[in-house]
Write a structure and sequence with these properties.
Elements (H helix, E strand, L loop, with lengths): L1 H5 L6 H29 L5 H45 L1
Helix pairs in contact: 2-3
Length: 92
């Protein structure tokens, strides 16, 4: 296992991307709640800020998920190409 790590046969970045996804979800929810509260305490014109806060709470995790899935897609493609290469090399 350690050999695969040092030879870069095993990728650790997909695991890191999953952790970053959860950080992004928590961050977008916190920012959305802060925007929502700011809009509620603003005496004039706070309705738009409340709306933006709700959008941030709903769409923030969605955008984080899509972005992380695109990043992981590249690593899945890399793993698949490595498996294909190993199959080709064992058939020769």
């Amino acid at each position: 296992m350690l050999r695969e790590f040092f030879l870069f046969n095993k990728m650790i970045t997909p695991t890191i991307i999953k952790v970053l996804f959860w950080i992004g979800v928590v961050g977008s929810v916190i920012v959305g709640i802060m925007q929502f509260i700011t809009g509620l305490v603003t005496p004039y014109g706070g309705g738009f800020v409340v709306f933006v806060g709700l959008l941030t709470i709903v769409l923030g995790p969605l955008f984080a998920r899509v972005y992380c899935e695109l990043l992981i897609l590249f690593f899945k493609m890399h793993e698949t190409m490595q498996e294909m290469n190993e199959k080709i090399n064992t058939n020769d």
